[in-house]
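Continuing from the previous page...

OK, I double-checked the sequence for Patatin against my notes and this is the correct one:
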Amino acid sequence: MAAMPTSPMNLNMIDSNFEVDKLTYEIFSILENNFLFGYGHSDNRTNSVNFPAKDAKPAINPAGKVRILCIDGAGATDGILAAKSLAHLESCLRRKSADSKARVADFFDAVAGSGVGGVLAALLFTRGKDGQPLFSADEALQFLTDNRRRISQRPGLLRRVLRPASKAEKLFRKTFGECTLKDTVKPVLIPCYDLVTRAPFVFSRADALEMDGYDFKMHDVCAATSADPSFAGPTEMRSVDGSTRIVAVDGGVAMNNPTAAAITHVLNNKHEFPFCNDVSDLLVLSLGNGESDFNSVKSASGFVRIAGEGASDMVDQAVSMAFGECRMRNYVRIQSNGVMAKGASWKTASDLLGATEEMLRQKNVESVLFKGKKVAENSNIDKLELLGGELIKEQERRKNSILPMVVLKNNNASPSPSRTSSATTLSTLSSTC
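Thanks. Re-ran it with the corrected sequence; updated structure tokens here:
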């Protein structure tokens, strides 16, 4: 992979006019107009909004629910909180299903991850030589813990001189080899920000299967979504066939919380999710990575991180509104409540793991429709346990279902007549020169 000029990149060198607001507007316009209040159906177009009655029972889709996993960018814990959450969830799934070899990827139909969350998604959903995912959740947690400083760099003179991004690129190349987006076991969405088109770019398995120009090596995808623009500089890369070129920086710059993009992708991707019509047909797990202490931020990289975390909270609020009355059943958000992250200093990996374990024992914080947030009765671990039960119920239900909730494409699938599954079409096509 070729990198851009070796001099450190100041944030001022990047056009401040990132189209984040435009992207957010497009995503939530799609959610609102087509799925939130049923405006996508001609017979439901009205000028008023009618929420379901509190005692109304949700309609049950005979085909079941599509299960989506979404993972935030680094946060205060450099991705360890999300990895620890998934290790707990995988342990729960193995225990409740009586399958000691069960993997997280077995119980989700799609995954979206940004920044280090994208790296975690790639570790858990890329197919290995035996046909199974490359990493279990415990192995992925160990990988992020061992390589945290290579992946989530911090500014410093020595690191600027040594170009730490190159260390991450070598690590990803060794880990993923020649695997591409086509070699993932389920639909995968991993965003970055493309400096060529000045727009977000979402690496998508569905797009890779549709067009060769959208298939990228997984080691390039991970380098792109985790490329810190504030001191290491962007990463230049091309698709496998060489036709699409992007100059990428961290996915957290434009989409630190990819939940809204993942929901929009699934609801629009009728080729792979034919019976998924609205948010009541979804079961979503969204994982945060702790909140940074604003008072301790002294670098451009830190301010970018703070901005990303704020955007993540906004996405959580908006998604909660989109789910409406079914948010308690269909949407789970795991995040620290801020107490542990503020002012925390972790000198060793053991310190960080202990802190994330305590975050999981905290009471879960829920977004309440039009009322901000509240502390729930259950802890984060309790929420993961309850979700694990729901994931297994859905797995068992599908064994006796006639209707296929998910129809995954494979490498031999022919392109669709109309390319409607794309996540990358939210932005313009990157340079093909």
